[in-house]
């Protein structure tokens, strides 16, 4: 049963004249990615990203937001759906307490090194808008400090609890660093939250083309919430779809070892060499037959595609209880979950073209 | 190699308070502007150029200091503000396009290099600024593997500018010894705070720029000096070229009980021309961190004290 989609997909790959509109411009990919990266959406507070996605999708495309906060877009006709899931949320922090001196106690949203935040700028996302602040560094460093700081606090520079509350700051507010998109040399770019704004970008770019050339079968794009804190949004989507999904493609980061500090035992997908099938990770093993089918389709379509195993979990894995096979699609990312994530825009384009091709081939 | 101008004594003699711009920028804008400019020790030209634009009658001396002479006659006094900040230079250009780094000389905390880890940097390349990032191990790929909690050092720093080869990196104007700092984006927060790396000394220099419109008693040499974090070469050169002075005030920033802490300094070797040496420290918070923070009101208090001192009031 896990391989029900294999026959059709392999056949399509074998017979394919290139159906997908190849050649998504890098400039278009960059414009979408920049907009999404410069929107804030810590887990549980994805509203600004969701609104940005709605603005970026084709104007005639109907979308729905479910009770979990996931944004859905549907294409094509009937039959079991091919589901693509990219998550809108990003790692960050949440205010737990406002101290008497106006500083904030925090809890983490997602996994990352707290040392990357020590002594850095902060934004507290309140109902009235973002409030600038700083992540306070440790009181003293000494001669032999540890890399990891003591529990971090945030200082909005008010001096009192009342003054902090007057800024609209309240427990439950999320906190991030400020961020921006920055082009590097060639087709490389850096920013924070490429995980998973690149995946969302790929779905937006594919949706623009699928809206003009809809597939004959059912295709669903889910822009999910709260992936970084336990795949919660995708779990709600999987519950809703049950056995009606033919297969699922999580569209998320391939954490690449393509950097000098990393061990190269696995995960070595070079930047610029194309999209990646994330065939093995901590949450899922993609069916080998489907992996081969996707590789064949990409080859037929002229889409550069790599294959690899890496670490982390993916949104597609929560469809497992319904027997829905998960073939995660990725792009190589350096320095994941840091403020300095780096991508190659050519890989973003390849990923979008792969999503489009897979959506159009049953 | 720095390009220094010299032999500008005539211009220095002509400089006077009346030659300053009629309207100096507001203090908060000035602090933000100066805090946005990179000036790692030994490579202070970008900040010196900014100060020269703000003080058109100032001149560069043989050390690279920005010097403005106010008034004439006795007493002769000097007030100096350091332009430089700690930083790094490119140590090597790898075949794969990554850059390795070396820290510039000067005293810094044991976690200074860790400020680079996983952050954005600016390289002062031959063709202009080049953005880059310093890599960090992925938290995902670290799980399940042995990890040390030792601080990140400059030996761990591999700078990624997007280049895929050494040739691509060099075509961007990068080479061994290209200076590098953390990317600078000063942040206003709280009621009157500005956060940025080296915000304290940049706020002190901002106060001095504005105070340089005061009417001097005797001669006051306003010096924005290079390499204070190394061996004080800029300060000593200013004293040698423009002294001897009865008194020299060196501006600084640090942890202080009030807006400005004033104490005396021991005169350095070869510093006889400095005269009595005092240090005025502008109060800052999180000193030495990327969010080093200063109060605009504290900087205004420093400006007021500097105006009084330039005018000969105690």
Q: What does this protein look like?
A:
The complex is a heterodimer of chains A (362) and B (314). The radius of gyration of chain A is 21 Å and the shape is globular. Chain A has 362 residues and is of the alpha+beta class. The model of chain A is unreliable at 1-8 and 10-21 (pLDDT under 50). Chain A has helices at residues 6-15, 26-37, 47-56, 161-166, 194-210, 232-241, 288-301, 345-360; strands spanning 63-65, 71-75, 81-87, 92-98, 104-109, 121-126, 129-135, 153-155, 174-176, 182-183, 188-191, 219-224, 245-250, 254-255, 275-280, 305-309, 329-330, 332-333, 341-344. Chain B has 314 residues and is α+β, with helices and mostly antiparallel strands. Chain B has two domains: 11-85 and 197-310, Zn peptidases (Aminopeptidase); 88-182, Peptidase M42, domain 2 (Elongation Factor Tu (Ef-tu), domain 3, Beta Barrel). In chain B, 23% of the residues lie in helices and 26% in strands. In chain B, helix 2 crosses helix 6 (199-211) and helix 6 crosses helix 8. The longest helix of chain B is centred in the C-terminal third of the chain and has 15 residues, at 296-310. Chain B is elongated. The chains are: A alpha+beta (362), B alpha+beta (314). Chains A and B meet through strand 7, strand 10 and strand 11 of A and strand 7, helix 4 and strand 10 of B.
Describe this protein with a few key phrases.
heterodimer, A: 362 residues, Aminopeptidase, 2 domains, six-stranded antiparallel barrel, five-stranded mixed sheet, 8 helices, 19 strands, globular, B: 314 residues, alpha+beta, Elongation Factor Tu (Ef-tu), domain 3, six-stranded antiparallel beta barrel
